[in-house]
Amino acid sequence: MTIFENKTLINKSVSEVYQFLEDLNNHQVLMPENIYNWSSSKDEARFTIQNMAKLVLKVESRVLNQKITIVPAEEAPIALNLEWSFVEVNQQTQAILTISAELNMMMKMLASGPLQKLTDFQIEALKNKLG
Questions:
Q1: Does the predicted model carry a pTM greater than 0.90?
Q2: Does domain 2-130 have CATH number 3.30.530.20?
Q3: Is residue 1 classed as helix, strand or coil in its secondary structure?
């Protein structure tokens, strides 16, 4: 398993950050420009990554104000798992995004950069959105 992770401090309560992220409808604002054909519900999101693949992600589990796990709902080009976790730090929320992917050596060379960029982009977009 290859791990991509980033975190940020947000000046909101854990419950506010959790409530925003538990609804996949809100994740569209966290996506980079190369994501299009977005459609979503609270539990599922469908989109296309430009020049790459179509993905369908679903919420696999929610632990109230602690963790949200998102996995592919249909066959994906790579096996991956996205996990948002939350920790209260001095009346702020530390939001941590961890993407775990099963990558062979070739896929690691191709996908590591884009997956780390996605992790970094989503953390920055969350910070910009919720402050």
A1: yes
A2: yes
A3: coil
Using CA atoms, how far apart are residues 53 and 31, in angstroms rounded to an integer?
Answer: 15
Domain boundaries in the chain? 2-130
**Which of 5, 2, 1 is closest to 98 using CA atoms?**
5
Q: What is the pLDDT of residues 34-47, one digit of tens each?
A: 999 999 999 999 99
| b/e burial code for range 103-128 (CB count within 10 A of at least 16 → b) | beeeeeeebeeebeebbbbbbebbee
Q: Give the CA distances from residue 22 to residues 14, 46, 63, 67, 102, in Å, rounded to whole numbers and listed in that order.
A: 12, 16, 10, 9, 24
Instruction: Provide φ and ψ at 75, rounded to 5°.
Output: -55, 135
Residue pair 35/51 in contact (Cβ under 8 Å)? The answer is: no
Q: Are 86 and 66 in contact (CB under 8 A)?
A: yes
